[in-house]
Amino acid sequence: MSATTSALPVRAAHDSSSGSCSSLPEPWLDPTTDDRALLSQVAEWYQRCLVADGGAQQSLARRGLVHPELLTTFGWGFADRRLGALLPGPKTHAGKALRARLQQLGLLRESGHGHFNGSLTLPIYDAAGALIDIYGRKATRNLVRGTELHCYLSAPADRRGVFNAAGLSGTDTVILTDSPLNALSFWSARLRNVTCTWHEQATIGDDLVATLTESTASRVVLAFRNTKQGVTHGEAVASRLTQAGLEVLALTFPANRDANDVLLRSGPAQLVVLVQERLSRSGTTMTFPVLAREDQPSPLHAEVNGKPPEEEDVRAAAEAELPPPAPIVEQTTPEERSSEQAALDLSQDLHFTFDDRHYRVRGLGQNLSLQHLKINLRVCRDGLFHVTLLDLYSATQRKMLIREAADELHVLEEQIKRDLGALLQQLETLQEQHVASVLKPAVPQPLDVTGPERDQALALLHDPKLLHRVAGDYERCGLVGEAANKQLCYLACVSRLLDQPLAVLIQSSSAAGKTTLMDHTLALMPPETVLRYSALTGQSLYYMGQQELRHKIFAVAEEQGVTEASYALKLLQSDGHLRIASAGKDQHTGRHSTQQYEVEGPVMMFLTTTAETPDGELQNRCLTLRVNESPEQTAAIHALQRARYTLEGPTSTAHVDPVRRTHQNAQRLLKRYRVVIPWAERLTFRRDQTRMRRDHEKYLTLIAAVTLLYQYQRKRIQDPAGQPCVVATLDDVELAGRLTCEAFGQCLDALMPETRQLLMLLDDHITQRAAREQRPRLQVRFKQRELREALGWSDFSLRTHLARLVELEYVLAYRTGRGNEREYELLYDGQGRHGERFQLGIIPTKELAQGEVR
């Protein structure tokens, strides 16, 4: 408004610690104007104080009222305790007159202090838009005990005015609250058709009733605080509105809560949900008088005094959006439970509905024991809710939940009790299924090989030179040399399908390539058949799934990683199964009892080591392979490494994945068969040491592994029990024999020249004597004296080099029973004269062919 010549300026504000109004322009208060105009001037001054006071704005933000249009739409202000200090002096004529007018209006008290000091102020207008009153709400929390939070200029009986009269036109439904702050909570949720009654009113004012009846509204939704006083007040207001011909519906908030509490705790969307749920139960809908403009700033980004509101306030003032409907598990009986419940994801929320009561369950999937049923449970009804953490198996916690939920939802305790009973039954079923699925080991299923990939795999399995191709494919994948070791490792992995698989221990010095050999071998095997670990604890094997290791490849990077579990590994390799008895709690009774854990094999073990003397008992159960550490092998590896950095390097490795995939698919097509060796009874092996008993079994298993790999090229028959078998051929025996020589065999190059010469002379001597006496070489025995006379060697040289041959197991010594006298048997049968490796005691394939069984 414009100032007149009689208007008196308020004294300039002095700087203060708070700085609330020090930068504001001087307000003009005209003591000659009428009461309403003077009241408007003071209200405008309060508004300018609020704009300049960030602390007062934060008090609104703490209430979740941060919408940028709140201040300008409703004229909020702040009485910062300076109005009295800014007036002309009390001893001046003008000061006395102005103070008298303000005291008459109730803005100043007799003490000279402002009536609204420290309060947020809200102008109150009548239906015509004239200012008739001001509402004040204390902005700070640290108040003296007994201080009134709410203040008006008028007495309770004289309070009139219509809050938000502009929002009550053009709608069929009006939301009526019991305070301006609660009304503004709905307004912030974009429910603009809202108004309120005033504090300490016995019922609704006549002017508000008249406004409602004259508007387009036919329905009023009461949203009063859920207290005894609020319910009483609401009943009086509802009675008055009903008499005026308006339909009245009531919202029910949680106990001792109101709309502003819901806004702060659950956000504005929850207020929209409460109103729509209440209207839907009455079979009606609501039309909104004012829709948000497209360019209206989002409350989420609204600034207060140039600063963004606090995170808590932003959450409370978020956009009002309806949450998506949650899936509901309908009420069922125990007999109606189906396997569909087992498919529920227990990491997600579960929803159950019983009449008008909705239950949400969280955390059921974390219960891996049947002794507990701990959940996060929320129950809702008509906008009321109760949330708690509890163990449903605890009677005390159930009783507390029943009592508190019934009180907050305004239902009978018996209803909540019945709900919990049905809920407990359904959750128990879900929990039992979940625990069973967790305890059941996840066994990867083999992939189906079809189409071109199947054709490629079958072509590989039908290749007559399959095992030679295996060695070549290793090299194509980046592993040079080691031809025999490649074939042995590959066949050992194939032996996983047999009842007594092989075990492999690759032994070498550090950085020699033992792990590389194992990695390339495992890469050719189907991933679902490989279990690879860095280390094992002492008891870990006993608690694997019963079928988890059956016919699998069990690989550990270093032998040191299985030191603690070596005993279990030995038993698993020898016996094919493990069994342990352990004390534990019974799942049903909770008492300690002895529980049995069993792990079934057979399993193929794959280990590496750098130790020169590995665990002896573990080593004699394995095929011990030595990596080629020669300079020539190192040079070949260097050449391969350098090739990767040439221009053609990347293209040279492009075929690696297809090669590996073909071998993996071929392995998937291999089937388990019992292998029949027609010449099994004629096969021979060394017998001079007890460890040969295990080595002989490895030799037979190696023959079976070769036959199993070539099963698509071998004859198949049935045993007397009707089970299918695959028949080994002489080629299989010869190939297995050659690889056995590589694994167990010896080389004459390791002998000293004199010792090797003695061995050659001894071999010729025994051959001639066996031919002369017409008996097998192994039945020919000799003494040192016979050799001295036949070979002409000195006693010292003969004893020295013969002792070395005995030590290296080329010659076997027997006691004659006469002092230290010995008889000797030559085990060497003439193999390896040209430096190749050989194994003593294995019958040549040519001899088997002479009496071939058809």
Provide structural commentary:
This protein is α/β, with parallel strands linked by helices and about 850 residues long. It has 6 domains: about 10-155, DNA primase, catalytic core, N-terminal domain (DNA primase DNAg catalytic core, N-terminal domain, Alpha-Beta Complex); about 165-290, Dna Topoisomerase Vi A Subunit, Chain: A, domain 2 (3-Layer(aba) Sandwich), CATH 3.40.1360; about 330-440; about 450-580 and about 595-670, P-loop containing nucleotide triphosphate hydrolases (Rossmann fold, 3-Layer(aba) Sandwich), CATH 3.40.50.300; about 675-745, no CATH class; about 750-840, Arc Repressor Mutant, subunit A (Orthogonal Bundle), CATH 1.10.10. It is built from 28 helices and 28 strands. The strands form 8 sheets. A 5-stranded mixed β-sheet has the order 11-12-13-14-15, with helices on one face. A 5-stranded parallel β-sheet has the order 17-18-21-16-22, with helices on both faces. A 4-stranded antiparallel β-sheet has the order 3-4-5-6, with helices on one face. Residues about 1-25 and about 290-345 have low confidence and may be disordered.
